[in-house]
Amino acid sequence: MSLKEKIDRDLKDSLKSGNKERLNAIRSIRAALLEKEVSIRVGGTAVLDDDQEIEVLASLAKKRRDAIEQFTLGNRTDLAAIEQLELAVIEEYLPEPVSDDEITDIVREIVARTGASSMKEMGRVMGEAMKTLKGKADGTKVQLIVKSQLSL
């Protein structure tokens, strides 16, 4: 079952159950995926591949995390709670996140393979690491680990 089919099925289930918060979150996911499809469409129809779908979902998750942080700082716990619910629904469709140890192992392997030895080569290491970890790890966390590995 494709991600789009799963989202459509979950949308129907949410409509039937009357869970409005989940329904709104799934609708926003569908809208973001459709918007991405339209933006890449050239002279007809376009279908997103798995990487593009994960990219859209990761972007939505990052936006929700940022909003939660801002609402919490602004003492708007009511709005932060709504964003938290939406984030939980988005994360259901994302691949399982990797642990810090797994990220460190992947970064070490990339550093060894590329021969990177200084912070000047951080961009190359980050590029390869983010390709490998797309949708599975937060870019900020990966950046911290890359910096720690290159500063050894």
From TrEMBL:
Looking up Pfam families in the UniProt record yields: YqeY (PF09424)
Q: Which GO terms describe its molecular function?
A: carbon-nitrogen ligase activity, with glutamine as amido-N-donor
Q: Which InterPro entries match?
A: Asn/Gln_tRNA_amidoTrase-B-like (IPR003789), GatB_Yqey_C_2 (IPR023168), YqeY/Aim41 (IPR019004), YqeY/Aim41_N (IPR042184)
Q: Which domain of life is it from?
A: Bacteria
What are the coiled-coil residue ranges? Answer: none
Please report the name of this protein according to its UniProt entry: GatB/Yqey domain protein
Q: Which organism is it from?
A: Chlorobium phaeobacteroides (strain DSM 266 / SMG 266 / 2430)
